[in-house]
Amino acid sequence: MRVLRQIAAKLMSAFLRPRAGLQQLIAKVDKRVSATDDLAAFAESMRFVNNDLPPRVLLKAQEEWAHVQEELSGLVRRTSYRHQVVEMDAGEVFQGVSSAELGQRLLYSLVTRFCPTHCVEFGSAFGTATVAIAGALPEGGRIEGIELEEWRADIANRTLQALAPDKGKVFVGSIEEVFPRLRGFGGFDFAFVDAEHRYDACMKYCDLLRPRVAHQGLIVFDDIDWSGDMRRFWRDLCRDEWVQSAALFNGRWGVIRCHRPTN
Ligand SMILES: C[S@@+](CC[C@H](N)C(=O)[O-])C[C@H]1O[C@@H](n2cnc3c(N)ncnc32)[C@H](O)[C@@H]1O
């Protein structure tokens, strides 16, 4: 059994390892974005960078995630997976819900480019995205994650402290209950929304974020290509006057730049 687990962990680490030339981000910038918008410029520049080696912090994280995967493989957990409660191998849960390398790189690159200091994540799971964001934060920057399942949040916090100490924390609980209690000082300038992938839930997350995201803040929505429901959410969101500019990466990651209309 142990040997099988080790083989599975090796396969997992090979899977997480960067494969030059295989991964590329293609961005589709929403038509309303002006040519001078820096989100559009970022989207344009991202077409090519993903053939490079990932930054060191992400390489280190990939090693750590391979250990986590090894630790979890073979443990059966009663947990929520794809909107259902199931009994499932914890290693498979990890692999099934976590952001893989391309998503980690996009988040890392966005944070490096836009230098936010107050970040929030809706749905942190095991923390793969949290660590990618934390690893790119400027001095003094912080990320606060929210995760419903305690065992996932524990792993996220442990790994976050190991790889990016003092850069943030993952809180256990529901977004609806925890987010209003987070401080965010002058407003959150970066949010990663990756919890329930349904139209109504995502609109509700927007309602929570709207009054608390800083002018020019960025929000990244994962899994726009998950369903027709999610694509409809993205289409409707892009029509909102809150959205200054929008770009969709690989049809999956929707990024908006927010502005506060002046009254
Ligand atoms: C796709 S996973 C997140 C993956 C993670 N962001 C990453 O990139 O590795 C979605 C997570 O959202 C959590 N979640 C779903 N609804 C939630 C809610 N209302 N409040 C807090 N967490 C929630 C789930 O427990 C799950 O772990």
Structural summary, described in words:
With 263 residues, the protein is an alpha/beta fold. It has a single domain, classed as Vaccinia Virus protein VP39 (Rossmann fold). It contains ten helices and ten strands. β2 and β3 (84-89) form a beta hairpin. The longest helix has 17 residues, at 56-72. S-adenosylmethionine (SAM) binds next to α6 and β5.
Quick overview of this protein structure:
This protein has 263 residues and is α/β, with parallel strands linked by helices.
Total E-strand runs: 10
- The domain tally reads 1
Number of helices: 10
Q: Helicity range of the residues?
A: 40-55%
The CATH superfamily is identified as Vaccinia Virus protein VP39
**What would you report as the Rg, rounded to the nearest angstrom?**
18 Å
- How much beta, percentage-wise? 15-25%
Sequence of strands across the biggest β-sheet: 1-9-10-8-7-4-5-6
Main attributes of the structure:
alpha/beta, Rossmann fold, eight-stranded mixed sheet, two-stranded antiparallel ribbon, 10 strands, globular, binds S-adenosylmethionine
Topology, element by element:
Layout: H1 2-16, E1 27-29, H2 38-49, H3 56-72, E2 76-81, E3 84-89, H4 90-97, H5 101-114, E4 118-122, H6 128-136, E5 142-147, H7 150-163, E6 168-172, H8 175-178, E7 188-193, H9 199-209, E8 213-221, H10 228-238, E9 243-249, E10 253-258
Parallel strand pairs: 4-5, 4-7, 5-6, 7-8
Antiparallel strand pairs: 1-9, 2-3, 8-10, 9-10
Helix pairs in contact: 1-3, 3-4, 3-6, 5-6, 6-7, 9-10
Bound molecules: S-adenosylmethionine.
